[in-house]
Amino acid sequence: MTRHKRTKIKLKSLYQWHRYIGVSIALFVLLLSITGIALNHTTEFNLDTHYIKNTTLLNHYGIHAPERIYSFSTNDIWVSQWQDRLYLNEIDLGTTPDQLIGVLLYREMIIIGFKDSLLLYTPDGELIEKLANVDGLPTAISAIGITDKNEIAVKSTNGVYTADMNISVWLHDTQAITVWNYAKELPDNLKQILLEKFRGKGLSYERIILDLHSGRLFNINGVYFMDFVAVLLIFLACSGLWIWTTRWLKQKKHHKPKKL
Amino acid sequence: MKFLFILLIFSTSFPLWARGTYQEPTEFLAETFQNNVPKASVIWLSGEVRKDVSEILTHKPNGLRVRYWVKDKKSAWILEEIGKTEPITIGFVINNNEIIQTKVLIFRESRGSEIRHDFFTRQFSNAKLTTENKLDRTIDGITGATLSVRALTRLSRVALYLNNQRLTKNDTP
Fold first, then answer.
1. How close is the nearest chain A Cα to the Cα of B78, in Å?
2. Cα A38 from Cα A147, distance rounded (Å)
3. ipTM of this predicted complex?
4. In this predicted model, which residue has the larger pLDDT, A179 or A203?
5. What distance in Å separates the CA atoms of residue B141 and residue B155, rounded to the nearest whole number?
6. What is the pLDDT of residue A258?
7. DSSP secondary structure, A112-123, as one string
8. Residue A94, H or E segment
């Protein structure tokens, strides 16, 4: 077999590999390109603020209800904490890292208690104010309640403190007869509604697209598979360049002007 | 090479250093009123006041009422505004409708903490509000801290505006 023939067979074989691999991974190239574009524009496409509601996917990611839900009630108003997410009835109030310790209805304000702060809300869920240590609120609060004089009371490590009408001044009160607000089990129907809401904010579209891009959606095997696809893409780039270069050199050789 | 490596470590860890509590709000109040902090007063952000504050902030205020502390003619305000993603806590002391002190108390953003420095905050000294609820002067920005500068400037306007409202309210018989 001549050298020319051997090169031709080799090139033909490389060309075939290039063709078959190209066809095989075309779908993955499309997937990588589309998800790549989407990831480059997460903010514009609001992918980080929109959430997956599909139960199968949520289960796949292990997004379940938290083991412990903190819930308190006053005058048919329910405040519950699901991990760090806080709900006033069905209204999502956002996240807070502090643990919920009670809720009160005081002068048409809903007072939500935490270890070191109180959040004051309107019944519509609009924040009025956040009270903390700087506002004179005692620290390390374990319970909140209403006294027989209709004052807000907090139980801290140093004793019971009651507030004035504007909740501006806190005084140590040893005489206060207080009805403390204790945790209660959420009603089943509200729990179900909140469970759907909570799970709905657990998985963003951005996360799904990112995991689809990296293959992580299909666990570690998916990652290795995408690595394999990447290796094939590298091969395609190299083989494409090789085929093109050899053909270009060949054409150049054939079209060389003959010497007179 | 070693120097470049140290420089790289330094530059990547710098944003973490930017965050911090520079002064506890309670300490700020104690310092302002010489350890004799008056009882807090409240101002409700409703009606026209809410509209004006929303205009200054360019968004709805986070809360329906704001606390302040006043003694003689001096009032102290501790306000929060988001720079880029996290709230910045800033303390203002106002006397005779002029800012006499501006202090960044808590900075939670990863960048832009340069606004805490005296060279920047002293630009607000004696700043007043114009009739259009703007500062009577131009505040020079800091490269790389644009959003934090904007947040602080907006809050200074809110503090002056609310102080004016407080005085108007007190003047009403």
1. 9
2. 56
3. 0.73
4. A179
5. 15
6. 58
7. EEESS-EEEE-T
8. strand A91-95
**Quick one: which H or E segment has residue B45?**
none
CB contact under 8 A, B64 and A169: no
Whether B60 contacts chain A with CB within 8 A: no
Q: What residues of B are in contact with residue A128 (Cβ under 8 Å)?
A: 63-65
Residues of A in contact with B24 (CB under 8 A): 134
Q: What is the DSSP string of A40-73?
A: HTTTTTTTTT-B---HHHHHHTT----S-EEEEE
Q: Give the pLDDT confidence of B122-171 residue by residue, as tens digits.
A: 999 999 999 999 999 999 999 889 999 999 999 999 999 999 999 987 65
Q: Do B63 and A129 touch (CB under 8 A)?
A: yes
- Cα–Cα distance between A232 and A234 in angstroms, integer? 5
Note if the pTM is more than 0.80. no
pLDDT at position B7, please?
46
**Residue among A21, A46, A47, A29 nearest A208 (CA):** A47
Residue with tokens 């002007």: A257
